[in-house]
Specification:
It is a single chain. This protein is an alpha/beta fold. Helices cover 18% and strands 19% of the residues. Strands 1-3-5-7-9-11-13-15-17 form a 9-stranded parallel β-sheet, with no helix packed on it. A 3-stranded parallel β-sheet has the order 2-4-6, with no helix packed on it. Helix 4 runs antiparallel to helix 5. It is elongated and about 75 Å long. InterPro entries: Leu-rich_rpt, LRR_dom_sf, Plant_receptor-like_S/T_kinase.
Length: 300
Amino acid sequence: MDFLSSLTNCKGLEWLYFGYNPLISGELPGLVENLSSSLQMFLASDCNIGGRIPSEIGNLTSLISIDVASNKLTGSIPPSIGGLEELQSLSLSYNKLEGSIPSELCNLNNLAYLNLTSNKLSGPIPSCFGNLTSLRNLFLGSNMFSSTIPSTLTGLNGLLILNLSSNSLSGALPIDIGKWKVLTSMDLSNNQFSGTIPNGVVDLEDLVTFSLSNNRIEGERSLKSWVKGSISSPLNQVVDSNLLSTIERERERSAANKCALSILQAGLECTAELPAERPDMKEVVAKLKKIKVELLRSND
């Protein structure tokens, strides 16, 4: 890591990237604080960096992104990182970091991406994470976090991806989970959650992947099985109500219901576990065309 000392003379340096380099080894020195005050990117993933993250990194106040994932870093997350007010992305995943998440990280008001996956971090998830309103991607999987999901996290209504898998989280899921309106992926598998799946899951209209496997949830189901079980429910609980609300005539509404149900069934057939059980795409296209013809015919 000796080359870093020479870079302290580069006063206009804005982007430092030396990741994926097997020739680099050693520890990050405290002299990183002497790097350019204009430094915005510090990207050093997948090297052989060991030791602790120097607290002096908190003096690089122009940093927008820090990525030191897939190294051999030990010790705790330095609270000084919480002073990097411009920081938008922080990736410390796949290291050997220990201890709890410092509450100072809750000061990162511009943080959109936080990845602490696969470390040895423990303790509760800070409730003040609910203040990180810019957060879009939160990865805390494969650690030793305990306690419950802070109810304040449901205030992150701009969250797109949430992964809390493979921890020791317990208790019930937040009942107002539906506030994550734009969530596309949620993995809560391999924890100790109990209770039932909150009704608010139905409101997660953009959810693509959803896993609660290996918990103690009553009626634990995948998103696929949930949709399959919901087909027998009133269709407005499964399909976006805006698709049906503009149809005034009862006959046309009934036809639209039948059409939506047929499309859902076709989609479920395409998600069979074994490839041999899934229909050929030519069959699917033919089936969808047939559904369309039947819909148009019924509205004549």
